Amino acid sequence: MKVKAGLGYDIHRLEEGQKLFLGGVKINFPKGLRGHSDGDCLIHAIIDALLGTLGEKDIGQVFPDTDPNYTDIRSTELLKEVVGRIKEKNIKILSIDSIIIAEEPKLAQYIPQMKEILCPILEIGSDILGIKAKTNEGLGIIGRGEAIVSWAQVLTGEKSPET
Description:
Layout: E1 3-16, E2 20-22, E3 25-27, E4 31-33, H1 41-53, H2 59-62, H3 75-88, E5 91-101, H4 111-122, E6 129-134, H5 140-143, E7 147-158
Parallel strand pairs: 5-6
Antiparallel strand pairs: 1-4, 1-7, 2-3, 5-7
Helix pairs in contact: 1-3
């Protein structure tokens, strides 16, 4: 089986009055992520990693912020489109490992919900999707609560004829 790896990264600034979506979950918090879409940096990092395994352009080129069709779109919809591309190429997701780095809010309690939303879209079991939440120990723009960052690594492989 031919295996490919993809790496994704995304950062968004936190702003008062914005809604906070991470991993498809709406989190009750006074600040949200500013972006052209809903700013869900976890999904954006996963999308970039998936696109990387396909040898395609990054999320900003595939879903440009100059296209009004993507204004305020839920990132879960963008993810569905990318998963469709993967299926068209007869590719299977073997593993996703991801991390969200945020000083606040504390996110560990939301991880099961994120998996409940993302796994069906990705068409994978919860054992294939790793999501971790960390702080930045008070350092830099993340530590000051000005931004949230996500990283994702994806492994994919070609589907066998019987799958």
